[in-house]
Every structure is written in C-alpha cells, then in structure tokens.
Amino acid sequence: MRLPLAASLLLLLAACRPDQVEHLSNTKELAKEAVNWEVKRIMPADLLRATAWAGDSLTRTAERELRQVLAEKLAAGGVAAALPFCHPEQLPRTDSLAKTLQATLSRVSNRPRNPAHQATLSAAELNPADTARQVARLNQEVFTYQRPLVLNDQLCLRCHGEVGKDIAAADYALIKQQYPQDQATGYQQGQAMGAWRASFARGGVAELWTMKTRKIMKPRKPLF
C-alpha cells in the first residue's frame, strides 16, 4: 500500500535529526565567489578605464625594464653596449605583458632618433604631468592609449642629453653612425621626449577589467 504524502514527509523529517545536518561554515565566502562568477555587462566607460589601467601597466613595465637593462649594459660596456637595447617594446617582460594584454606598444616623437618614430605631437601631448594621458575607442574591437614619454632617469642623458656635456664625442659619433638622422639629443631630466602609444584588443582590456574588479576574499582568521 502507498503511504499518504503527509506520512511520507513525517518519516523523512524524523530521519534527519538536527545533529545529523552538516552546516557550511564559509557561506559568506561562497556567496562572494558566486558573485565573481556571475555574468556581468561591461559598459563602454568600463572598457575605457581598463584601457587606462592597461596602458599605465604596460608603459611603466617598459620603463622599469629599460632602466634595468640600460644600467647593466652601460656599466658593462658603455653606450656601445647599451645602444642596441634601447627598444623597450621588444624587451622580454614588456613583450610578454603586451601579449597578455593583447597590445601593441610603440614610441613616437617630434625629434626622434629613428625616423620611423616621427610624429607631430602637440604641447598638450608633451605635458610631462603624470595625468596627461589619452584613451579612446577606435572601433568595436580596438582601444588606444597615449601618454608622454618623460626622461626621468639620468642614465638616459648618456644618449639623449647635451652633446659634449652629457654625451661624449665618441659616443655621439657611434650614435650618428647607427642613426644618421638622429634628432633625439639636447634633452634635460624631467622633459618629455615624445609619447608612448599602445593599442589594445577588446578582449585584453575586458579581461583586465574582469580580473581587477573581482572581489578578493580576505583570509579567515583562525578561531584558536
């Protein structure tokens, strides 16, 4: 014979005593993690903000890595040893980060060393203030970033300072031999030499926005 529905429920409740129910102790953490995995709509303003984050991260990585490499090469063999490495966008850590962010990084200047980097930059674009950056969306899939490239390290004066004062005559002869159309001298510390430019695929900035806005759970303190 089939038991009535009410009787069946009574039997189930009797079988589950309170002392046999295992309560989860990390419900707050599970709730936060569930929020992280919710599908969220990323707005256009969010993508532009992520582009600024990505551009700052990429260009600052390039500057740090370049300073480190140039310091090592200048100490080891002077300007002759350092000159081939003055391509920060090609250095290993910078190149690796660019691939992660789905980015292309370049440098431009009104007075470049390499004619391929020639560009016409306005006074506003050469403002050495840290806040002088521009982000834009070219189309649905491409975002752009630009900020001034500032000579912040005295090491750079060895190749970009005043000839005869900061740059030895022999070193300048070597620079002119490799770059006959060089214009990138006469700078002072703190002066903008040009601008960093980067382009990012939408996927790269969207992934960065997702990762940076995830809620990070603080580790729980032990009770004892």
Automatic annotation (TrEMBL):
Stretches assigned to the Tll0287-like domain: 102-199
Superkingdom assignment: Bacteria
Pfam families listed in its UniProt record: Tll0287-like
Family annotation (InterPro entries): Tll0287-like_dom
Protein name in UniProt: Tll0287-like domain-containing protein
